[in-house]
């Protein structure tokens, strides 16, 4: 908190689309406003891509009125130019094209003293902010390992001519470790992919940022954080602030008992289960499993013999997810058989609360970075099953840190093969019976708590960032 007489910097946060981006920006906004003496505004593009984003933003601004909302009305994007593109990548592109004209009036109207933008927007936002005389930091919403890959990837392309048809290989990130070809996000194997063009431009632009905040902590990714700070990854890289795991924000529940019962039925179900007896299964907000894989997962969960809470996702964008549970899972028979020991839902759950519940003993996760940091804060062992994007890199972090296990041979999006029910059941049994793994995950939790406590490394790093904004 600022001492008496110190100014309060006004920091404008500019996230991109998707819950994986909005959630950490919301957590950063609350931390800056509530614990570090800042005035904070958050700019968001409306309408959102998904209903989950809209609900999250509405709840955030109601619960934390000190965080001001700035709505961005984007210019129309001709989506026909990008046939078959991921809807979230399209939103990135629409924002990137609109922000050069929108950013000046936005920050002038807000009287901003500093700007924090999303990595997906950084290469267009940083130059505009510089012309406005405004310090611009980047919040990297994934792992430090992925940040190091992003910073090095343009140099890799330049050296290997991969961008002109030379083909993608393993990438040795200086000072960090090798990212195998099989773990590189699928889109980056195509130099003409919309996401590849965005990713490379953002990687090249990072060196011009005033600093980079990353939602991790020293104890989780020591090699990557040190290499970024020391300049081993990229010459002239700006200061790096490991500020994670960012603490979750809590939203008040309704005063109506029936509403509370409806909204938090899964917590009541967990309350009735023995300690460390439940397997929590969620593959995040961005991708849905294929029908064949979903049926194998269902059979594997049933065959494991363990209790489970499974959050099912049936479409990329939740607004398009119209099928019922029974339709997705091949009929009512499965739900009837597992009902005594399982809760299966398509509804949104407060994942942090689930993971911190004493009944949860393991987390079958796609390893989106928010999920990894929440597992780290909770000390719940992870069975990593990455599906898309940076998730194999994140799964590698999970395995190196001792937070869980990763079966590297399990397929992900775009690869042939389905992981069988037998394999799923075997690995779930293994993780649930692994007392040593549980102890390792608990040590990660202790390190996360120490980092984020007042005086801890992540707390100090965020305070240093605020000091720079105050000085600016």
Automatic annotation (TrEMBL):
Pfam families noted in UniProt: UDPGT
CDD domains assigned to the protein according to its UniProt record, in alphabetical order: GT1_Gtf-like (cd03784)
EC number: 2.4.1.-
Enzyme class: transferase
GO molecular function: UDP-glucosyltransferase activity
Entry keyword set: Glycosyltransferase, Transferase
Top-rank lineage group of the source organism: Eukaryota
Residues that span the membrane, as ranges: none
Family note: Belongs to the UDP-glycosyltransferase family.
PANTHER family named among the record's database cross-references: GLYCOSYLTRANSFERASE (PTHR48048), UDP-GLYCOSYLTRANSFERASE 708D1-LIKE (PTHR48048:SF76)
Name under which the protein is recorded: Glycosyltransferase
Species for this entry: Eleusine coracana subsp. coracana
């Amino acid at each position: 908190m600022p001492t008496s007489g110190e100014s309060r910097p006004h920091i404008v946060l500019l996230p991109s689309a998707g819950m994986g981006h909005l959630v950490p920006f919301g957590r950063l906004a609350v931390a800056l406003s509530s614990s570090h003496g800042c005035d904070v505004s958050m700019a968001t593009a409306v309408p959102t891509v998904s209903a989950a984003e809209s609900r999250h933003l509405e709840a955030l601004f109601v619960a934390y009125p000190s965080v001001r909302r700035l709505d961005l009305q984007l210019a129309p994007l001709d989506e026909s130019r990008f046939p078959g593109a991921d809807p979230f990548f399209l939103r990135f592109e629409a924002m990137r094209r609109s922000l050069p004209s929108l950013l000046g009036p936005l920050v002038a109207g807000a009287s901003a003293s500093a700007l924090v933008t999303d990595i997906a927007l950084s290469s267009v936002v940083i130059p505009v902010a510089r012309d406005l005389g405004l310090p611009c930091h980047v919040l990297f919403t994934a792992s430090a390992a992925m940040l190091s890959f992003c910073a090095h990837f343009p140099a890799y392309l330049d050296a290997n001519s991969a961008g002109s048809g030379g083909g993608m290989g393993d990438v040795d990130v200086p000072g960090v470790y090798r990212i195998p070809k099989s773990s590189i996000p699928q889109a980056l194997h195509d130099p003409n992919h919309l996401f590849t063009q965005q990713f490379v431009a953002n990687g090249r632009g990072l060196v011009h940022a005033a600093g980079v905040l990353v939602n991790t902590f020293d104890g989780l990714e020591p090699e990557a954080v040190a290499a970024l700070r020391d300049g081993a990854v990229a010459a002239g890289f700006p200061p790096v602030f490991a500020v994670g795991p960012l603490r979750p924000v809590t939203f008040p529940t309704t005063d109506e008992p029936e509403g509370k019962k409806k909204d938090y039925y899964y917590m009541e179900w967990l309350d009735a289960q023995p300690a460390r007896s439940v397997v929590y299964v969620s593959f995040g907000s961005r991708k849905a499993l294929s029908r064949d894989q979903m049926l194998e997962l269902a059979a594997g969960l049933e065959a494991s013999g363990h209790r489970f809470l499974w959050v099912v996702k049936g479409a990329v964008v939740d607004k398009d997810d119209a099928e019922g549970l029974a339709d997705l899972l091949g009929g009512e028979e499965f739900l009837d058989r597992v009902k005594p020991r399982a809760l299966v839902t398509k509804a949104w759950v407060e994942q942090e609360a689930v993971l911190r519940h004493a009944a949860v003993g393991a987390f079958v996760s796609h390893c989106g970075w928010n999920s990894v940091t929440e597992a780290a804060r909770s000390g719940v062992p992870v069975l990593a099953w990455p599906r898309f994007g940076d998730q194999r890199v994140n799964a590698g972090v999970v395995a190196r840190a001792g937070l869980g296990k990763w079966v590297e041979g399990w397929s992900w999006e775009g690869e042939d093969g389905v992981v069988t029910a037998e394999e799923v059941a075997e690995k779930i049994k293994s993780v649930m019976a692994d007392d040593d793994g549980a102890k390792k995950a608990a040590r990660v939790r202790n390190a996360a708590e120490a980092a984020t406590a007042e005086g801890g490394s992540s707390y100090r790093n965020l305070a240093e960032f605020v000091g720079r904004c105050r000085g600016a």
